[in-house]
UniProtKB/TrEMBL annotation:
Protein name stated in the entry: Acyl-CoA dehydrogenase
Pfam families hit by this protein: Acyl-CoA_dh_1 (PF00441), Acyl-CoA_dh_N (PF02771)
Limits of the Acyl-CoA dehydrogenase/oxidase C-terminal domain: 253-388
Keywords: FAD, Flavoprotein, Membrane, Oxidoreductase, Transmembrane, Transmembrane helix
Family according to the record: Belongs to the acyl-CoA dehydrogenase family.
Classification via InterPro entries: Acyl-CoA_Oxase/DH_mid-dom_sf, AcylCo_DH-like_C, AcylCo_DH/oxidase_C, AcylCoA_DH/ox_N, AcylCoA_DH/ox_N_sf, AcylCoA_DH/oxidase_NM_dom_sf
Segments crossing the lipid bilayer: 237-257
GO molecular function: acyl-CoA dehydrogenase activity; flavin adenine dinucleotide binding
Residue ranges occupied by any Acyl-CoA dehydrogenase/oxidase N-terminal domain in the UniProt entry: 25-90
Cofactor requirement: FAD
SUPFAM superfamilies given in the database record: Acyl-CoA dehydrogenase C-terminal domain-like, Acyl-CoA dehydrogenase NM domain-like
Length: 398
């Protein structure tokens, strides 16, 4: 009998359930020892997790954003750093697959490489740049046959295993028309170095988001995928896809983490007692019940919001420029709501929550990073307000 694509997808989903649990069992070890999630990576790659957004024509499972985000949050429930780092690969394959299905085959090579098992990472993070992908502190210089890039990239998740680093730089050779140059750098490229900067980071340690220093790195024209004006006027389908797939991935990672924290509270709270409280447990304390209720309301509000955005993107709903508003708002709403859930959990758990064996302090640290992922809360509110008020988001001074 010939196995259909539906059968293959069902087998993938079944296999991933067990692997996700094992990832959760290893998460504390990775965090405590500043280790990359190598075993998680190997098992998930072997199972096909990295191929879920790659179209069937290139050896993948052809999942759209709505399906992908369900798996992202399920993995994050067990191992948020693993889900966060792999999101950097998945968002490249997902956004390029969307472009390919829409008739833009200019980056088809990426899908071909991903189908062969190549791993893609993201190099958009830069110190002093709160609007990544639309501006860059990295210098891009046009030379014969391509561009040379010089700059310092931060938060390079998947550092130990990537085959291609997708990043951007800014070409200021024409001061009146600066351009953002989007490129992919193969691992064997010369003139770059990886700086170990992630030991004992506040959270998400297993992502190994080390820095990458570009020292005049040459990228040939065939790996230059976009040349766009700086700022939001350069927001074409490629950049919008970066924002959608990346930010929706972030949103679902922290949502999955918050779901895990709430479940832990519901499990442990009935066993928490106080000598001054003449009840079976602190679960009967009215103030604590209030906070648990607040946590539940946060969780119940986040999920449907993210599901709606992912479904409508997958259906191809045409919101035009308003897609930016919807994507940024959903990400900000999710990570801030998830943080409130985790913060309240630490209040409820009290001193016990500070202990590593309790399992809360690690999740508390991991959750905090959601608020600094682009777009952070400050620029999110600035962008949303300007967009709704009809103010040019690129208007200077800000």
């Amino acid at each position: 009998m010939i196995e259909t694509q539906t059968d293959q997808k069902s087998e993938l989903l079944k296999n991933l359930e067990g692997i996700f649990v094992k990832c959760g069992e290893r998460a504390a070890h990775y965090d405590a020892n500043n280790l990359f999630f190598q075993e998680d990576f190997d098992e998930l790659k072997e199972a096909g997790y990295l191929l879920m957004a790659v179209p069937e024509e290139f050896g993948g499972y052809g999942m759209l954003l709505d399906e992908v985000e369900q798996l992202t949050r399920k993995l994050a429930y067990h191992a948020a750093p693993t889900a966060l780092a792999l999101n950097m690969h998945v968002y490249w394959t997902g956004l390029v697959a969307d472009l390919w299905r829409g008739g833009d085959t200019s980056i088809q090579w990426l899908l071909e490489e991903a189908g062969k098992g190549k791993v893609f990472a993201a190099g958009h993070g830069e110190s002093g740049n709160d609007s990544p992908a639309t501006y860059s502190t990295c210098k891009a210089e046009k030379v014969d046959g391509g561009y040379k890039f010089t700059g310092h990239k931060m938060f390079g998740s998947l550092t130990p295993v990537w085959d291609y680093l997708g990043f951007h730089g800014q070409d200021n050779s024409d001061p009146d028309n600066p351009m953002v140059i989007h490129a992919f750098m193969p691992r064997d490229t010369e003139n770059y170095e990886i700086k170990n900067s992630w030991d004992d980071a506040l959270g998400m340690r297993a992502t190994r988001s080390d820095d990458t220093i570009l020292n005049g790195v040459f990228v040939p024209d065939e790996l230059i995928v976009r040349r766009l004006p700086t700022g939001f006027k350069g927001m074409d389908g490629f950049v919008l896809g970066v924002f959608c797939w990346a930010l929706m991935g972030f949103a679902n990672v922290y949502y999955g983490l918050a779901q895990c924290v709430l479940d832990k509270v519901l499990e442990k709270l009935p066993k928490k007692k106080s000598i001054s409280f003449d009840r079976p447990s602190m679960a009967y304390n009215g103030v604590i019940q209030h906070d648990v209720g607040e946590m539940v309301m946060e969780i119940e509000g986040i999920g449907p919001h993210l599901d709606t955005i992912a479904r409508e993107w997958s259906e191809g709903k045409d919101y035009g420029p308003a897609w930016g508003i919807k994507i940024v708002a959903a990400k900000c709403r999710s990570v801030e709501g998830s943080w409130r859930v985790v913060d309240k959990a630490m209040d409820i758990m009290g001193g016990y929550g500070l202990l590593r064996k309790a399992g809360f302090e690690r999740l508390f640290r991991d959750a905090r990073l959601g608020k600094i992922h682009p777009a952070n809360g400050y620029i999110s509110r600035e962008f949303l307000a300007k967009a709704m008020l009809g103010i040019d988001p690129d208007l200077q001074p800000r």
